Amino acid sequence: MDSEVGPLRAVMLHRPGNELKRLTPRNNDQLLFDSIPWVDRAQQEHDAFADVLRGRGVEVLLLADVLREALADPRAHTAALQSAVDQRRLGEDLADSLRSHLSTVDAATLAEALMSGVTFEELPASEGASLVRKMHHPHDFVVDPLPNLLFTRDSSVWIADRVAISSLAMPARRRETALLDLIYAYHPRCRHAARAYGAHSAPVEGGDVMLLAPGVLAVGVGERTTPAGAESLARSVFADDLAHTVLAVPITQARATMHLDTVCTMVDRDAVVMYPLARDSLVAYTMCRDSEGSLRVEGPEPFLHAAAAAMGIEKLRVIDTGLDPVTAEREQWDDGNNTLALAPGVVVGYERNMETNARLEDAGIEVLPIAGSELGSGRGGPRCMSCPIQRDPV
């Protein structure tokens, strides 16, 4: 896979599940949601999203299904126990008890526990004394839920024929990488894929990684991806000859702009949809290899200029998300810039971003609108909710 816009053939999504029902007013901030979603409606919206993709010939793989299939391998089942049990927090005896319990359940039950979490109340009755258990409320989590699994873009990203397992920055999301490690190591569909980056490296999240053109990556650096992460990814893709240029793009470290794809996404071979306030403020540091193979860093210079030069085109077409500052800010918050390209000039976007969608249509981009009133409560749009695993070349 060498672009953001080549015809999409296969994608991994995660249908909202019981992990979202674990959200409460006490924990939704910690678990990175701005409100508590209506789960049934979120599932309906997600099903409609998946149907739009299938209707355009895209194979949809659901993360819960592939996780269950991976866990059918006894090696994956054993590895999952290690990732789920935090002995430092639980203490040795309770950790052993939890491992013993999870080792007896089938793949479907274990997958549900890994995604939705386990409360102290749901553990089998304890035979011995445990201070940890006595000092926790029954509804506290012994295994935390992963409501952000919905946003499959962040936890892994395909670069050419390799997969990069993200190193997620926020504590609420770090265990997601263990599940993706299991899937890519043990699922028959994925286990032969070579790795482009490891989850134990410096923080990089998939929402910050864009395949601008064959051999050209842009990596947002902000709240979730560090400069060290961007440099480490660049060194990795250079070593594997997956790219010749990587642009490190600083973005504001704020909730509204947590990833590069919250301010800018590709909608055609030479076009982006972009938040107007970012158009003139985004810069890029250009990383490439010199004649001896060593890393060279240049810049900063305006992002749009650096991107066009790296892509070998005269300029990038920019479609603004509304010229009115208030409308633009509202639609950026509602993921108007976070579109998923199904082919050059064909994107999926939230229907509520009417100004952005109208401007895309005026620019010759076909917009397939989907509802996202509940899906968007975790701050993510169609691109955030999708991990493309196969695209045709552009």
Brief synopsis:
The protein has 394 residues and is of the alpha/beta class. It has helices at 39-55, 63-71, 74-84, 87-90, 92-103, 107-116, 131-134, 152-155, 176-186, 227-239, 276-279, 303-311, 325-333, 354-362, and strands at 8-13, 59-62, 118-119, 141-143, 156-159, 162-165, 194-197, 209-213, 216-221, 245-250, 264-268, 271-274, 283-289, 295-302, 317-320, 340-343, 346-350, 366-370, 387-391. It folds into 2 domains: 8-59 and 147-391, L-arginine/glycine Amidinotransferase, Chain A, CATH 3.75.10.10; 67-143, Pentein, CATH 1.10.3930.
Q: What do these coordinates show?
A:
α2 packs across α6 (107-116), α2 packs across α9 (176-186) and α3 (74-84) packs antiparallel against α9 (176-186). 32% of the residues lie in helices and 23% in strands. It starts with 7 loop residues before the first strand and ends with a strand. The relative contact order is 0.15. α1 links the parallel β1 and β2. It is globular. The chain is built from 14 helices and 19 strands. It folds into 2 domains: 8-59 and 147-391, L-arginine/glycine Amidinotransferase, Chain A (5-stranded Propeller); 67-143, Pentein (Orthogonal Bundle). It is an alpha/beta fold and 394 residues long. It has a 5-stranded mixed beta sheet. A 3-stranded mixed beta sheet has the order 2-1-19.
